[in-house]
Amino acid sequence: MKNNKMYEADDKMISLIADNYNILQSLGRFGINLGFGDKTVREVCEDQGVDTYTFLAVVNFSINGYRDFDDGGRFSIPTLLHYLKASHEYYLNFQLPSIRKELEDALDENDNLARLIMKLYDEYAHEIRKHMQYEEKTVFPYVDGLLEGRVSDDYDIETFSKHHGQIDVKLKELKNIIIKYLPSDIKHNNQLTATLYDIYNNEEWLGNHSQVEENIFIPAIRKLEHKYKQNDVSAKISKMISRNHDSSESLSDREKDVIVSLVQGMTNKEIADHLCISINTVITHRRNIARKLQIHSPAGLTIYAIVNNLVDISAVKL
């Protein structure tokens, strides 16, 4: 039964667990160990290297569906990644094999319907494994790259979001078949009922896991992408400015004289006469200037000359 309380950083961790014992599983996936005494949520999280805000956001969302987060940008992506990766580890390597073993023990292997049920479960387990392995091989490494400042042009979290669909259809089908059609005189009826109860819990857990990804993880990665893409644009602009600045230093004095003359509206012949050089030399200087600065238009050269203090803007005919 859900508790409607919104848990805060100063609440005692033991109280949170006493109110919601199913949170015990989440503690391990965050990397929180038991034995924390009467410490608060904040104290336990800080002691064990878990971001308190992210922990409480996931817990309150899981318990009460609470979504009114202060700021999605406050989520700790490493904490979320640790939680999701550990969830996959728990589900693939413990939960799926455990339920399969329970079904094997509860069903008669010689019964055709029992064999079909096992086949349906194996198909479900295969789909879940395929879905989670995709996240581990594609989504999580992509996010790790973002955290290291690498922005991909070939993938984004929106691609994952569009394909983040329902993956527990076969589990519901399995559950309904057991309830509706399995004979009532099965030898291990109590064991099968207990297994069915675990399947219901399994379905609830998987739904919550999916909702955490949809409502917390994906929005947090969208914000991270936006941040790094903005930074990437700024870096490219800075690099371009720096490149132009470096280019200005590599210009010869004569090339700078040619730029000033061009900005003043002189023709190639007038520049040649003004600087006492040949027209062919002027043309060569202009080619070198365009190559070094990657600027080819008179307007672009005028802006360059003003920004780099080669001419005063008051002396330029706009």
UniProtKB/TrEMBL annotation:
SUPFAM superfamilies: C-terminal effector domain of the bipartite response regulators. One of its GO terms (molecular function) is DNA binding. The keyword Coiled coil applies. Residues 244-309 form the HTH luxR-type domain. The keyword Coiled coil applies. SMART domains: HTH_LUXR. GO terms for biological process: regulation of DNA-templated transcription. Keywords: Coiled coil, DNA-binding, Transcription, Transcription regulation. Signal peptide: none annotated. Residues 96-123 form a coiled coil. This is Helix-turn-helix transcriptional regulator.
